[in-house]
Structure formats: C-alpha cells, structure tokens
Design goal:
The protein is mainly alpha-helical. About 60% of the residues lie in helices and about 5% in strands. The strands form 2 sheets. A 5-stranded parallel beta sheet has the order 2-3-4-1-5, with helices on both faces. Strands 6-7 form a two-stranded antiparallel sheet. Helix 23 runs antiparallel to helix 24, helix 25 packs parallel to helix 27 and helix 31 (about 655-670) packs parallel to helix 33 (about 695-710).
Length: about 1000
C-alpha cells in the first residue's frame, strides 16, 4: 500500500480567508488547527496514556523519590531479593547532583549528593545486630573534619569512642544519652540524607540514637530512606522513622514485566506465563532464571523448564531467612498437593503455626483464611521439598500419608515414598487417579496415572500402556506438556498399539494450546499411525483444522480439514468427535461468512453431546454463545456464558475457564460494565499465567478491556506483550488481534503514525483471508479512522468500500455497520462534508444507543463534537461531549473520562500564556506523569519510552503542560511543580483530575 494525497479544496470553500478553506487557521485541515495531525495538541481521540501505578523496581524507585522529596521519610519494604537495595541506589542516583559547599564530608561509594545535602549510608548484615553502635560508627565514618569540628570537645570524645570501640564491648548505661546528643548536634546544622539498607539488622544502640535524631530533626534538614527485609508492614523501619512513615513496597513483577525481562535477555516473551509460575514474579529468581535460560542452546528453547539456578537461589532464600526447624516444616508443606496448617499439625509439626508465620514474614508463602498454605513461587516449593535427602523425603511422604485424611492424597504420598514396582500400589494409584479425574482435578489425575504406570511391574505391560495413555489424556486437559510428553515417549518406547500412540501424541498437541505452529511433524506422524482407523484419522484432521486456523491463518484449509474430520467421525460412529468437528466447521464457516454456519452449528448441537465431553471451549454450546457475541446479542451471550462458567468451574479445565472469562470480559466491555470486565480479564491472565497457557489470547482480552476501562498505557503495554508472545508461538490470529488493540490505542492517544503502522500490519495479515464476518474481528473501522487522520484518504475509502458489503450482511443496524458509519462520518468531515458528517454521526450515535452499546455511542458523540466544532458550533460540540462524558461516567470508562474532560477543558478556553494556571491540578493524569518525568531529568525520548508513546506526542503534551502552568522552560516547570506540591499532612496520593 502507498500513501495517497488529500483531495483539492472544493469550489464551495475556495476563498483562503474563509474558515472552511483548508488554508484558514480555523479549518481542521490547517496545520495550526488543534485537530490537525501535525499540530502538537492533536488527539485522534484523547490524551496520551497514563503511567501505571505498580511498584516493581523502576516504579518503586520513582515513587520512593517522590515521597522522599515530599515527606522527608520513606520506608522501602520487600522480601529477600526483591530489589530493595537496587531501589535505594536508584533513588540516590537520581537525586540532583551537586556538592555541598564547605561540608568537607565524604559519602559512601555509589551514592550521590543533592544540593546542600550529604548522603550518610548505612548497610547492615545479620551479624551487625550484636555489634554495639556498629551501624552508627559506619554512618559517622562518612563525616569529614569540617562537620566534626563544629562539635564540642565532649561530643567529639563521644564520637571518637563510638568509632573506635571493639565489636564485643558491652554497652554502658551512661553511653546512650551522650551518643544521642552528639549525633543530633552533628546533624543539626546541615542538610543530610540518611540511607539505611537493612533496618532489620540494626543494632539496638544505633537504632535508638538514629531514631532519636530522626524524631528531633525534621525534614528537610534530615531526610531518611530506610529498607527492611519484610513481607508486609515494615516494623523496624517504622520504629526508626517515627511510627507511621509512608511505606513503598517493592512489588513482584507482573507477567508483562516478566515478558520485558525475557525480551531483554533475547528470550521468547511467550515464556512469561511459565516463568511467572516458576518464580512468582520475584525479581532475583526471575533474573537468575532468564540468565540460565539464555545460555540454553536453541534446540532446547521450546518450553522453559524450571531453571536449577532459580531453585538454588530459592534454597538460599530459605536458608537465609528461616531456621532448620522451620525449613523442615516447609519441606512437608512442599511435598503435599494441598498444604495447610491443620495437616502440618497432624503430621507432628507442633510449631507449624510459628514456622508458617516466619515464612510468611519472609515472603516465602501465604496462609489464607482457611489455613491453606500457598508458596509464592514454584521454585520455593521445589527448593523446600529438596531440603531433605531422599530417605528423609520418603519418610516425610509416609508421615503425610497417615496425616492427610484424603484417600486420593494418601495414595499419592504412599506411591511417592516407594522405590520399587508394586502391583497393589499401582492399582491403588490408578483408582486414585480415576477419582481425581471425576472430581475435575486433571493435573493431579495426570500425575497419578503416570505414577501408576511407573509403579507397574514390567510383566504387566498392557496395564502400564493403559495407564500411560490415561496420563497423556489428562495431561492434555491440564495443559501439562511435560507429563504428556513423558507418557507419549514411554508409549513409543513400549511399542504400544497405534491407537495408544496416536492418543498420546495428540495429547501432546493439545497440551501446547495455541503454540502449535511447530507441531506439523507430530501431526504427520499421527496420520501414519492412524491409517485405516477412521476415528483416529478424524481426531488428527480436527487438530489439523485447528492448526490451519490458529497457526497459519488459513480458514479455507481449516474448513476442509474440519469437514474431513466430521465425515470420518461419522463413518467411525464417534458422536462426540463428530460434534467437535462440526463445531469447528461451523466456526470456519462463520469466519468465511458463508450462510452454512447456523445449520452446521445446529447439526452439532443436535447430536446432544454434553459441553464438557471434549472440552467446553471446543463445544457447540460454547460456539453458540460466541455467535451471540459476534451478533451483539449480548444479554443472550452473557446468559449462555454464565451457564457454561458454572459447568466449567466443576467439570472444566483451565483453558475452559480462561476462554469463558475472556468472552465475559468482551461482553461486559461492550455492555459498558467496565468493573466486572476488568475482573474477568484479570482472572483470565492470572490463570493463564499460573497454568502455563499461551498468553497471547489472555493479553489481548486484557488489553481490550484496559483500553475501555483501565488505562491506555496499560492497554498498549499489554497488547504489545500479547503481539510478541503470539508471534513467537506462530499464532497469527492473536498477533493480528493484539496489533488491532495497539493501533486503536495509538489512535486514541494521538500517535497517528504508529496507529497507521499497527493497523496496516493487521490489514496485511488479513489480506490473505477473505473478507468475512466483521463481528468476529472489528478492526476495519479503526483502520479507516487512522488512515483518515493520517491524511491517507484513498486508503480509508478503499477499505471502507471493501468492508461495507460484508458488514451489510449482518444488517443495517449491526454493531460493525454502525462502527463503519462512524468512521465514514470522520472521513466525510476530513473531506470537507461536515454537514453530511454531522447528520451521519447523529444517526450512528442513535444506532449504538438502540443496540445497547454505550461505549460505542459515547465514542461516536466525541467524533460528533469534533465535527460540530469544525462547523463553528461550539455549543453543539460541548453538548455532544457532555453527553459522552455522562456515558463514560456511568460505565466507569476511566481512560475515556479523562479524554473527554480534556476536550471539555479545551472547549472552555486555554490558560493564558503567562502566569500560572489557577490550579496546577488541571493537568490530566498523563500530563502530570510527564511533568514528573521531566522534572526528574528525563529527556523527551526517555519519557516517550517510559510512557509507551511517541516523541511527537510527548512534545505536544509538554506544550500543553507549559501553557497550563504558565511556564516556558524545564527549570520553570520544576519550580512550578515544587510550588504546587501538597503541604505536609495533605494526602498527596489523590490522583490528579
């Protein structure tokens, strides 16, 4: 595709002095008009994305620095290896540099000094707790002769004694008060930053003196930044700082931050889910894992196994924070599938409650209100389980078998304690596996079937093969690739019958979820083994259809494969497989826009196969709910999905739950139920992460809901991760969908060039797919709008003309048709037909209202307001925007609320060019975030990278910040922001308007 030029001005506006002429400054096509893409104030649909509020290491450093400047005291808290020292170093590094004139004082290596402030650094280790005045001596060693010269002779003697006392010398009662007075006198005249790394290991004498100084000397004379290794409320730091300091927690990494770390190591971002499960977002464990995985040869980079280095680091965490008795209790907890306090007490750990409290304080685990124990990372559980030798673990399993009180788990512990084949134990284990399967515990069932096979005596090969086959099938349902592959490899080595081998190999395919682009050789092997078996071939062809659709974006090929699968299943008399194949065929018919889809779906439903038989997400019942979503029959869709959700919670697997939650998030987003939509999407992301499922689909849904209900910045970040993860998995479907959300958000935030790039990539990907049902994938209206805003009007018209006939098939008043009408209205306005555009947008807003799509209605009103403003009808523009704001307020669409407020602010008149605005809080959230970044010394490029927007958008936003605050430079901006900072005691955490 090539760019096209704008059309020539019409004869009706040929006078350059007329406001309707493109050369007039008030015309939307003029570069000086705020609605022109080249104008620094331009927004396609609103402000730039706001930064997130999480406090992983970079965010925690920024937040702590802001609190330090505002409050003068801040506590940094987090468990072992969370990155507290890194945050402290970053805060000190980002302080404005400059010497303290005449101080003569030194600072510890690696720290910085602010203007007139000297950093006093104290770093502790566990052994320091018993060294009287050890921390104080370390701090005083950074003071130079000039500071000490101001003390009296008596005070200098006290300081000298502190500096030169031996490590084992006891504290005399007469020493404490003179030390307090001497240190307070030393620190009183200057401006200091006290940085204490490890408050939990301060010796009591030093803690008393430093606490006294902090209580006596207020900020900004003495400011303090104190870290404490703790999970929860920082106690030692709070005592030191005066009881209730502001605490900044160094949070675990989320899946997106883990994906970013993987990318930085040159690793696939699709590994974010498994890595989150392995490391729990713990920064050090995650970093160690990435380093280890990056050293693997390419041949082993398929799915990340838990890095042994991460387990070693987790073991170091346990040893450094817990004593041997507590670690033994945690070993028992790690060896059982359902650890709880009552179970550990029954297993003879009488001090279990105390041990769990210690582990919880160390951030190793959590205990829920039902007393269930949850390790914060799988690597910690594995390290805890390995803390004993094999004989010790076997004995622990036997102890747990007696204590567990559940027959299934009793058998699990008995078989894990066994070393030799045992036919009776193998039979008990198989029975327990079947019980777990019936209870919907598919991962447990897979593990037990595999253990039963491993315990089966070699002479019972038929039994062993049967158990391996069951293990593979249950592993597929649980998404456990490792168990599925172990079972398949064992069946191949056993020279099992083709039926068993094909079943296991297809289980491996199913366990991979969306990541099936590299499994063609496996499917080819299955075809060879299945020759002459119609039902087996049907199962293979069904997977081939899924692969063609997901990995190769080839719906025609997928349709043919699904058709073959349905015919073969019917010939083999396999009704469940026939229903699944017909459902896949109906799905592809819908993709291709053929009229056969409803009939095929009805045929699948008529077979009467329960939804849970072959996976709820693959059932005809679920596809019927999806068709209701595509057709905007949202109330019906929600009712169907909630019925399936109740079924999935009892009889489904993780993928069933994720797909249903994702669909509910999509439905509630369109209905304008923003809060539940975010909750559904968050559940889908968390379960996908925990279960090791493909992240591209879950991140797509999360980005879609965030763009409506969360923040544009979060949506852009999430969609970017989703696109990368899907690309790495060869999942073309969700590459395109994530790119669509990226392009839409870039359009809304005024980054038109990037929006065009993203949506052009979608168009290129979809160029190979026949134009199909637009209700399934609604990217065309945003692409038309982006092309229009970029001035590529011929491209916009061409796409609109090609999409129109397909949307018309869904009905004149359909959601996709109305969205195309909105895009057409924007295109008409850009071409100068503003009255026609206004009429069309009025009709479109009414259509969306009739369809019950409030967010689309409100977005159309925003576009209408722009057109009315271009018509010089300011009152009509404001009325449209007020109506849009009311809808966004009713639905809780936060990013759109901010966007509309900004439009209304601009409609009400800009701040004068000189003199500060009456209230600096008129800055939007994104403008305030940018101002903070600039004041912290960020360049425009750095700010753009941090906020996931373009440099051009930063420049335009910064211009508005300058105008609103009445400043002309970065220096004046910093002064204005400092002057507008909340007074002490005021709640500065209230977000800007």
């Amino acid at each position: 595709m090539t760019p096209d030029s704008d059309p020539a001005p019409s004869a009706a506006c040929a006078n350059p002095a007329h406001p309707d002429h493109p050369d007039h400054p008030d015309h939307p096509d003029h570069p000086d008009h705020p609605d022109h893409p080249d104008h620094p104030d331009y927004r396609a649909d609103g402000p730039a994305p706001a930064a997130g509020v999480r406090h992983a290491v970079p965010g925690a450093a920024r937040h702590a620095a802001a609190v330090l400047e505002r409050e003068g005291r801040v506590a940094l808290a987090g468990p072992w290896g969370a990155g507290k020292t890194t945050v402290l170093e970053e805060v000190l590094r980002t302080l404005p540099s400059g010497p303290d004139p005449g101080s003569g004082g030194g600072i510890s290596s690696g720290t910085g000094r602010g203007p007139g402030r000297t950093v006093l650094r104290v770093t502790t280790v566990e052994e320091d707790r018993d060294h009287v005045f050890g921390a104080l001596a370390q701090m005083l060693s950074h003071c130079g002769p000039a500071q000490l010269a101001a003390l009296s002779d008596r005070q200098n003697e006290v300081v000298d004694r502190i500096l030169h006392r031996s490590a084992d010398e006891p504290l005399a009662a007469s020493e404490q008060l003179p030390a307090r007075l001497a240190v307070t006198a030393l620190l009183a005249p200057g401006r200091w930053i006290l940085a204490v790394d490890g408050a939990q290991w301060l010796d009591p004498a030093s803690a008393d003196v430093l606490g006294y100084a902090l209580r006596t000397l207020p900020a900004p004379g003495l400011t303090a930044l104190v870290t404490e290794r703790v999970h929860g409320r920082a106690q030692a730091a709070a005592r030191l700082l005066g009881g209730h300091p502001v605490q900044v927690d160094v949070d675990p990494l989320d899946a997106e931050e883990t994906a970013a770390l993987l990318e930085a190591h040159g690793l696939p971002t699709r590994w974010a889910g498994p890595l989150q499960s392995h490391c729990g977002g713990h920064p050090l464990l995650t970093s160690v894992s990435c380093t280890a995985l990056a050293r693997l040869p390419a041949s082993r980079r398929h799915r990340p196994a838990m890095a042994e280095q991460a387990v070693d680091a987790a073991g170091a965490w346990l040893r450094s924070t817990l004593g041997e008795p507590a670690r033994h209790t945690l070993m028992l907890a790690a060896l059982t599938s359902r650890p709880s306090l009552p179970l550990l007490l029954r297993a003879g750990r009488s001090d279990a409650e105390e041990h769990l409290a210690q582990a919880q304080a160390a951030g190793v685990l959590s205990v829920d209100p039902a007393s269930a124990v949850h390790f914060t990372a799988a690597a910690l559980a594995r390290a805890a389980a390995r803390s004993g030798a094999r004989p010790e673990r076997a004995a622990a399993h036997l102890t747990l078998a007696r204590a567990v009180g559940d027959p299934v788990h009793e058998v699990r512990h008995r078989v894990l304690a066994a070393d030799l084949p045992d036919q009776g134990l193998a039979e008990d284990t198989e029975t327990a596996a079947a019980t777990a399967r019936e209870a919907g515990e598919r991962a447990l069932a897979a593990e037990l079937f595999l253990l039963a096979a491993e315990t089966t005596p070699p002479a019972r090969s038929a039994m062993r093969i049967r158990r391996l086959s069951h293990a593979a099938q249950e592993a597929a349902c649980a998404g456990s690739v490792d168990i599925a592959r172990q079972a398949a490899d064992a069946l191949t080595a056993s020279r099992a019958e083709p039926t068993d081998q094909v079943t296991a190999l297809l289980a491996v395919v199913d366990a991979h979820g969306q990541a099936i682009s590299d499994l063609e050789p496996l499917l080819a092997r299955c075809r060879e083994l299945a020759a002459g078996h119609p039902d087996l071939l049907a199962a293979v062809e069904l997977r081939a259809a899924i692969a063609a659709n997901v990995a190769h974006a080839a719906p025609e090929r997928a349709l043919r494969a699904a058709g073959r699968a349905a015919e073969l299943a019917a010939a083999g008399g396999h009704r469940p497989l026939q229903a699944a194949a017909l459902t896949m065929r109906a799905r592809m018919e819908r993709v291709l826009g053929t009229a056969d889809a409803p009939g095929t779906l009805a045929e699948a439903l008529a077979l009467g196969v329960p939804a849970q038989h072959s996976g709820i997400r693959n059932s005809a019942q679920y596809l019927a709910a999806r068709h209701a979503v595509f057709d905007d029959r949202l109330a019906e869709a929600r009712e169907r999905l909630l019925e399936l959700l109740a079924l999935a919670e009892h009889e489904g697997d993780a993928e069933d739950l994720v797909d249903i939650w994702r669909s509910l998030a999509e439905v509630d987003t369109r209905l304008g139920a923003c809060t539940p939509a975010l909750a559904w999407a968050d559940q889908a992301v968390r379960l996908s992460t925990g279960a090791g499922l493909s992240m591209g689909p879950a991140w797509y849904t999360a980005a879609l809901t965030q763009s409506a209900a969360g923040s544009f910045a979060a949506a852009l970040r999430t969609a970017s991760c989703g696109a990368r993860a899907s690309q790495e998995e060869g999942d073309g479907l969700y590459v395109a969908r994530n790119l669509w959300v990226m392009g839409a958000v870039q359009l809304h935030t005024g980054d038109v060039a990037d929006a065009v790039a993203s949506l052009t990539a979608v168009a290129e990907a979809e160029r190979h797919v026949p134009l199909a049902d637009p209700g399934m994938f609604r990217w065309q209206p945003d692409a038309v709008e982006a092309f229009t805003c970029a001035g590529r009007l011929d491209l916009a018209r061409d796409l609109l003309e090609r999409a129109r006939p397909v949307a018309a098939a869904a009905g004149a008043d359909s959601g996709p048709g109305a969205a195309l009408d909105r895009a057409h209205g924007i295109l008409l306005a850009r071409g100068g037909s503003v009255e026609e555009a206004s009429a069309l947008l009025h009709r479109t807003a009414a259509a969306f209202e009739g369809l019950g799509l409030p967010l689309e209605q409100a977005r159309t009103l925003l576009a209408l307001g722009r057109v009315e403003r271009a018509r010089r009808r300011q009152a009509a523009a404001r009325a449209a925007w007020e109506a849009a704001r009311a809808l966004f307020d009713d639905t809780g669409a936060r990013p759109w609320q901010e966007l509309t407020r900004e439009l209304l602010d601009r409609a009400g008149g800009s701040a004068p060019a000189t003199g500060p605005a009456p209230d600096a809080r008129r800055l939007t959230e994104s403008e305030s975030r940018l101002a903070d970044l600039i004041c912290q010394g960020a360049t425009n490029q750095q700010a753009a990278q941090h906020m996931f927007i373009s440099v051009k958008t930063v420049e335009g936003m910064l211009s508005r910040v300058y105008r609103k605050l009445g400043v002309r430079s970065r220096t004046q901006l910093a002064a204005a922001r400092a002057a507008a900072a909340p007074a002490p005691g005021q709640d500065a955490r209230t977000p800007p308007e």
